[in-house]
Amino acid sequence: MPQVIPGENEGIESTLRRFKREVSKAEIFPDMRKHRYFETPIEKRKRKALAKHKQRKRKFRN
User: How far apart are CA 37 and CA 21, in angstroms?
Assistant: First the structure.
């Protein structure tokens, strides 16, 4: 879990900005979106197959 300790003369805006940066580095939002609702095994298989297809397509493009 990201934690940010505000500096002595640091404003709340810059502290919040640092916290948001730490949260994005920790990749919390994608994980949260992934667990937002229940995914059936069939949906999970389809999502993984689509991701694999996209990755393969990107690999051959380069």
Answer: 25
| CA terminus-to-terminus distance, the chain | 36
Q: What is d(CA 35, CA 26) in angstroms, rounded to the nearest whole number?
A: 16
pLDDT tens across 1-58, in order?
788 999 999 999 999 999 999 988 888 887 888 788 888 999 999 999 999 999 888 8
Both tokens of residue 50?
């689509």
Range 18-48 burial, b when 16+ CB lie within 10 A, else e: beeeeeeeeeeeeeeeeeeeeeeeeeeeeee
How far apart are the C-alpha atoms of 62 and 10, rounded to whole Å? Answer: 44
User: Does pTM surpass 0.70?
Assistant: no
